[in-house]
Amino acid sequence: MPLHLDNNDIAIIKSLLKDGRKSFRQISRETGITTPTVKARFERLVNIGFIKGVLPVFDFNKVNNTDDIIQIQNINKNKNNTREKEYFDKNGNNIKFEENINKIEKKITTGLAVNLVCDYCHGPVLGQPRVLKFADMERFFCCNSCKIDYREKYKGRIESIQKRYEGKSEIEI
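^ thats the sequence. predicted structure below, dont judge the formating
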């Protein structure tokens, strides 16, 4: 069963599209959503694999270069397994960036369904996902068997993360 994004998820994503360097507090002020909720929603979107990363956008005005176009390799591969190239004009503006941001903003709407993948067997999560929560993390599974096997396989790692998380929250208090 896919995870459906709600208005809070959409507001957070659109805020990050404007500037991915924003703190959770800045996003909270901009969207009217509490800071802990922003943090939890962002982490959930990362945990389910919808947010893969926040990448920098470079200002090539700061570069001493007389060429009209600068060509760099994108880190993502396209469907043909070849690296896509991105082009920048002489002012450092990504020629396709603004166009892509507009397309992304149009696609991200309330009710957008994100397909979940089992964190153990990597199969699709059909129906209600089984969720394992520890520290500030969530893992999603297709069945109880995968959830139990994951917990057993990564028992030491999970305990270590929980200890670090509990120690961190005690220091912050």
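Residues 9 and 41 are 7 Å apart (CA to CA).
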